[in-house]
Amino acid sequence: MQGIPWFRLVIFLVVVNVISLSVHAFAGFRLTSVMPPGSVGARSVWILLGLLFLTLNAGMFLSRMAHPPLWARTVTVTGFVWMGVVFLILSTGFGADLLSGVIRFIGWLSGRDFSSLLWWNRVGFLLVVPFATLYGTFQALRPPQIHEVEIRIPNLAKEWEGVRIAHLTDTHVGPILGRSWVEDLVRRVDSAKPDIVVHTGDLVDGSVESLRDALEPLSRLRGREGTFFVTGNHEGYSGIKPWSQQMRLWGWDVLANERRILSRKDAQLVMAGVTDAHEGGIRGGLAPDVGSALAGIPPDVPVILLAHQPKQAIQAQGHRVSLQLSGHTHGGQIWPFHYLVRLQQPMNAGLERIGDVLVFTSRGAGFWGPPLRIGSPAEVPILVLRKG
Predict the structure, then answer these.
(1) Where in the chain is the domain with CATH 3.60.21.10?
(2) pTM for this prediction
């Protein structure tokens, strides 16, 4: 992972593997709970889980290869799919345990024996996981929903009434989502006839050398008033400077703590952008600075701030930001992960006010890791600004 200090990378890998081992252990005990101890089936489950754990780890590294051969792509996709499946085993297994506790409690209250239901409850989650995997894969790989969202801005001039902003974020083009997906995305977004196109980060998972061809269709996407990009945390892993330079070559205006003033007749609209909240800790990165991005802007001019993470609205307090556009959360991506997102971010998805900043957070067009989306469909919102 480019630019990340080695000690932070080591800590990250240790934490991830401890969590991953714990999840795999839970899955193993759940899957073997209905098998005779020491049986061939039980041993086979543990051997398979060990191989899948290694595949998941190998896939994380192989996904960064510049030009991976077929075997490397196969390992990577298998590892990412398994990441989603093992998460579903964890969440449904916990759900089954909770249901078992409720059944036992009801039995204790009523003085009746419901133990015959517990066996079905122990293995019932095994029936849920395959269907949830198929459904989640279908939702993740289908084209993102393009839909309009009307947002009212108090100080919007009549000349900017109805301006259309196509908000892309979290495309995560890489081992699974490739050029054909990007071509379809560009075609569908362009058909919405946006005045402004923005991308609020996490463009890719991989280097410029390996993914330049896959992303090339983005060079044909244009907003009539401007096309803007800010970096996300995954640009920090894939190369901030190379991808920023490539986006500029493709005609995107990369805003790194900067602003651009757009004009229609005498009416102005400011498009500003800051770097990701993590970027200051990455070699070659630039820490976000809202003050520099918005210095000297007249108080009556509407400001649209691009910031990858919703929580960056906390640093935007008091800067008269009319609307912040963010991504990063994926809307939770896989239920019930939605609830964990709120432990790290002030919002999940949609339109909310954080202090004095109105924030719209998109669920994102792609996905990270497992090709699964459950309860959080991909989207590219077309934001229509109105005065009010």
Answers:
(1) 144-387
(2) 0.87
What is the distance between the alpha carbons of residues 205 and 309, in angstroms, rounded to a whole number? 17
Distance CA 340, CA 89 (A): 17
Q: In order along the chain (388 residues), what is the average pLDDT of each group of 10 residues? A: 56 74 81 80 88 83 72 84 84 78 80 69 72 90 95 92 96 91 96 96 90 94 95 86 94 95 92 88 80 88 95 93 95 87 90 95 93 94 94
Question: Hey, how many other C-beta atoms are within 10 angstroms of the C-beta on 207?
Answer: 17
CA distances 329 to 87, 200, 206, 323, 361, Å, are 17, 12, 20, 18, 8
Q: What whole-number distance in Å separates Cα of residue 2 and Cα of residue 292?
A: 26
| Cα 58 from chain centroid (whole Å) | 22
Looking at domain 144-387, its CATH superfamily turns out to be Metallo-dependent phosphatases (3.60.21.10)
pLDDT for 143:
93
